[in-house]
Amino acid sequence: MKIVYQNIHLPNSHTLAVYEANGGYQAVLKAFELGSDEVIEEVKRSGIRGRGGAGFPAGLKWSFIPKNDPRPKYLTCNADEGEPGTCKDRDIIRYDPHRLIEGMIICGYAVGIQQGYIYIRGEFYRETERLQAAIDEAYAKGYLGENIFGRGSRFHLAIHRGGGAYVCGEETGLIESIEGKKGQPRLKPPFPANIGLYGCPTVINNVETLASVPTIIERGGAWYGALGVAKSSGTKVFSVSGHVNKPGNYEVELGIPLKTLLEEHAGGVRGGWSNLKGVIPGGSSSPILPAEICATITMDYDSMAKAGTMLGSGAVIVIDKSVCIVRAVARLSRFYRHESCGQCTPCREGTGWLSQIMTRMEAGQGTHEDIDLLLEICANIGGKTICALGDAAAGPVLGAIRAFREEFIYHVEHGRCMAG
Amino acid sequence: MNERSTISTGVTPRFSEEALRQIETIFKRYPAERRQSAVMPILHLAQREFGGWLSRESLDYVAELVAMPPIRVYEVATFYTMYNLKPVGRYHVQACTNISCWLCGSDQVMDSLKRKLKLSVGETSEDKRFTLAEVECLGACVNAPMMQINDDYYENLTADKVAEIIDRLP
């Protein structure tokens, strides 16, 4: 079942003509017939949870926006796509941008929003060109602007390009960035639903979430909700990278066994299933799962949480037995150190320490005490910062020590990698 | 966190008429009283117009256009790594070495780039043709390893392929 990727293999799928020839911009007309409250109900009924990483129910998020509030309201689409391993939104943007635009128009109508922004990572220059061309087409057709679909109501859409800061994928960092500031996340509460962009009520959704909305409206929330499994309804795009024979973005129903995703969709683990060491299942922040758990686990929010990791952005990073886990984690720790925005001491200092200790561990200069020290630093970061970047930095370290502690010990005792 | 500082050239740049028209459309994307929101797009534009990087004077000029205190513009420019605060070559070669690319051979890609360009990471060639940079994940992980040269992505790289790509640049 393909929803957000249903058209991406068609020639010229990025154009308005192809989108409309395949039923595009019909869902928004249906939304107008349903009425705004019923649109929100349909999205709630679908059970769709935020596809960016946090997994918060999208319909609920929309319903938190205060009604009869005199302030303007904003919709911001998170297209920052920065979580290492994740590249699913890029294909929606470059191959089916109108699906995203239609989703945003529907959200704008349902929630009473007249201005939307798409915050796209700055490096996606060509993708930005594609998206801007689609927005221009939608304006020319009267689907965006002062009098959308001839209904006398207004919805404007603009792109805001980021500048290469991972932390701007965090929703309040993103808001700060649109406001023309450093992307340092805000304390919550207040939540963006009340005080978001320019101090006004703001909905923030991921690209994949918004691109799912036209189909939810077209087919109905109940139809969408029947896909997938309980509490993880619908489809999800998994970006499968690393040691598989066919890396790629695969849209499948949630609840699919990880082994099926890898073996039947991604061409199998390089060198066969027995060569699998572990999988980072939901982007670089999610703790790694060792091969024995990968054999049985299913890809849904609850199963992942139960296994002590998360579905996150759906970036499935496959690691075979040739890889030294200590070196892999050292690389990730360097990333988080680089991307910490610096405002919270536990994260700013903690990511620095994690990176330093992981680097010396990798170089064969670690001690047994360092392993416990790493765990202690993680404990001192987790839950003690304004945003989740600190927890994200701790995730890979905690996961690796939990699943592969013997490799850390081997590094300490032999001064080199166990593998590779 | 990164420590980045600005460099003064003593020369104040000026936007072209065409760029100034673009800036007017940038301001229109945001509420009239929120001109500061335009600072990032205008910095991006300034970098394209002023030779691929932003001097202290370029930042001051943007501050004036956006009516922001210069220090606020310095904060933004130093926070976001895509703003180059020192000169870069005509081709800014940025290779990703993060997890997915590393698993798929970014070490070999980086070695090949270093050999081919005769540069270390962070260096610019004497003829100002190339700057070599190591970057964090650019979001093309299923086609790893990858690199970006100016506005374009190059994916599914191998050591040989990157050498060819460099040779083919105009």
Question: Can you describe what's shown?
Answer:
The complex is a heterodimer of chains A (420) and B (170). Chain A is α/β, with parallel strands linked by helices and 420 residues long. Chain A folds into three domains: 16-226, Rossmann fold; 236-320, Roll (Ubiquitin-like (UB roll)), CATH 3.10.20; 325-414, NADH-ubiquinone oxidoreductase 51kDa subunit, iron-sulphur binding domain (de novo design (two linked rop proteins), Up-down Bundle), CATH 1.20.1440. Helix content of chain A is 45%, strand content 13%. Chain A is built from 17 helices and eleven strands. Chain A has helices at 16-21, 27-34, 36-46, 58-63, 88-95, 97-111, 125-140, 171-178, 207-219, 221-225, 258-265, 291-294, 301-306, 325-339, 345-362, 368-381, 389-414, and strands spanning 74-79, 115-120, 156-161, 202-206, 228-229, 232-233, 235-242, 248-253, 276-280, 289-290, 315-320. Chain A has a five-stranded mixed β-sheet, sandwiched between helices. Chain A has a four-stranded parallel β-sheet with strand order 3-2-1-4, with helices on both faces. In chain A, strands 5-6 form a two-stranded antiparallel ribbon. In chain A, helix 5 (88-95) packs across helix 6 (97-111) and helix 15 (345-362) runs antiparallel to helix 16 (368-381). With 170 residues, chain B is an alpha+beta fold. Chain B folds into two domains: 17-79, Arc Repressor Mutant, subunit A (Orthogonal Bundle), CATH 1.10.10; 91-168, Glutaredoxin (3-Layer(aba) Sandwich). Chain B is built from seven helices and four strands; from the N terminus they run H-H-H-H-E-H-H-E-E-E-H. Chain B has helices at residues 17-28, 39-49, 56-66, 70-79, 99-103, 106-117, 159-168, and strands at residues 91-96, 130-135, 147-149, 152-154. In chain B, strands 2-1-3-4 form a four-stranded mixed β-sheet, with helices on one face. In chain B, strand 3 and strand 4 form a beta hairpin. In chain B, helix 2 (39-49) crosses helix 3 (56-66). Chain B is elongated, with a radius of gyration of 18 Å. The termini of chain B are far apart. Classes of the chains: A alpha/beta (420), B alpha+beta (170). The interface between A and B is large, with 60 and 45 residues.
